[in-house]
Structures are given as structure tokens and as C-alpha cells.
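Aim 2 progress update. The chain analyzed this quarter is reproduced below.
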Amino acid sequence: MAQLTYAQAADLLLGWDDLLILTHVRPDGDTVGCAAGLCRALREQGKTAYILSDPGTSGMFTMHLEGLLAPADFTPNKVVAVDMAARSMFHEGAKPYMDRVDLTIDHHGSQEFYAKDTCVEPDRAACGEIIYEIVRRWGPVSAEVALPLYMAVSTDCGCFVYSNTTPECHRIAADLLACGIDFMPINRRHFRAKSFKRMKLESMLVESMRLFDDGTMAMVTLTLDMMDRLQATEEDVDNISAFVGQVEGVKTGITVRQMAPDCCKISVRTYPAELDASRVCAQLGGGGHVAAAGVTLNMGVQDACDAILGAVRAVQASKE
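Predicted C-alpha cells:
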């Protein structure tokens, strides 16, 4: 196992063919954008490359995967994982490849180094930045490659408002815009437009919101019953964990989403100077970034709420 530079990763990829690219479970804009951008860039270099299909992919992202998904009879020679820090991030269809990943490209500080080679840079706002640094070494970046990479960068830093946004993040976004992409539909789709069901869900979240620590911490629960009542889809709840942080004065936002009767996915968003989200989630076996992390717990909603609140208190106490 080796930790590669961008140049080394670029050279390694150019020496391979018949590549399969993996995205993480419950794909977001960063992992999908990375996979699509890398796949298109590899094809422009004459390589055979595909992305492994994940039925859990939201309709928000499927347009970027058109023509890129691997056929059922494709046998890869090399497997690349993007934006995947841990084995727990493999979706069901990707699990057969868990022990044969040749290269992981990632930006999580909690990277488990499960692949033969790894290119990781935790200081990057998005994994899409790293993919850009790699593919630009092969020559000018086309608009077809730049568009999904812009989605990767913009969605992982909240359209450049999250605390992980850096000067370099803006510079890379500018480079991608200079490739001639039509960026406005991306920003509208992910940061302005909301379905009616999404707006109804947000009103339900407000009604059930609990505030702690003089209003600086908020917790919401998104239950199966709420989803069923509105017949909401994954597209309706895309990036729902960012909602609680919109409340004035809230510095720690916790979203507990019920995935099954006894399974909850928890997202924690924080101001890094106030609380390390990755440390909180690590208390329960999860991980992520300083300002955004998550964990999945096999328990009911109330127990999950109690568990994550206990984890927050434990990390807060350790700072005193």
C-alpha cells in the first residue's frame, strides 16, 4: 500500500485499462461527480472505463451517469474508488470489490487505507478537487469532464458557503468554469429549486426540531412515517442534513434519519471551532470531516437521538 501524489496517481491510471469506478453508498454530488469526471477523462485517453451502478442513486445525479454505467458482463482489470473513506461506504453492489480496490482517491481524514494504493488529501474541500488535479495532468480538461467535477466541488462545499471552502476551492471552480461549462443548471438544481414535497418535509422538521445549549445546537428527526405520508423520494431529501444549519444561531446541526424500523442514519454538521463532527461520530463508529460527519446506527429513532446526543456531550466534556 502506498500514498500517491497527484502525478503518481495520474501515471498509474494512464497505465491501466478496463477500469471500474466505485461510488459510495447513498451517492452524493461529490462521489458521482468524481466518478463521472474521471470516467469521461479516462475515455478521452482511449481507456475502457465504466462506473458501477448503484440503485440508490438519486435522480438528482443520474443525468451525469448516462452512457457511463458498466454493463452486467463487464469484467474489470482495475478497480478505483472515489470519495470512499471506509469499507462501510461500499453499497451492496460494490461489496464484492471490497478487497480488490487498486486505487482509492479521497479527501476524508478518516480514510482507512483499504486499497492497494491511495491518493488522499484531507485538506481538500471536495474529492472533485483531487480528481481535477489528476486529470489535468493528461492535457486540457474538456467541458464534458469539467461539468461533473464542478458539481462535485460545488455540492461538497455548499455552493462555497460551508466552512470547508478554501481559496484553492474557488480557484479550481474558476478553472472549471473556464472550460466552458453551463454551471447555472447545476447550481439551481442543487441550491435553489425544491420540490413541493421537500418544502412540506422541511415544515415537518421545523415542527419536531429540538434545541439545546441556548439554541446553538439543533436536532431534527426524519422518520419513515413522514416519508410515507408525503410519498417522498430520495430526490426530495437530497442534502436534507444541511437544512437544520439554516436556523439562526445554530452551530451544531444533527439530522437523525430513520432508514428502517431499527436503523438510523445520523448526519452532524458543525462549526469546526465549536465542535469536531468527525470526533462525535467516531464515538459511535462513524467518521467524516471536522465540519460534517455521519454514522449509521442499528437502533430506533429515540435511541439513536439519545446516542448521538451522548456522543456530543462526551466530546464537549473532553474539551473542558
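The first helix runs from residue 6 to 14. The chain has a mean pLDDT of 95. These observations will guide the mutagenesis experiments scheduled for the next reporting period.
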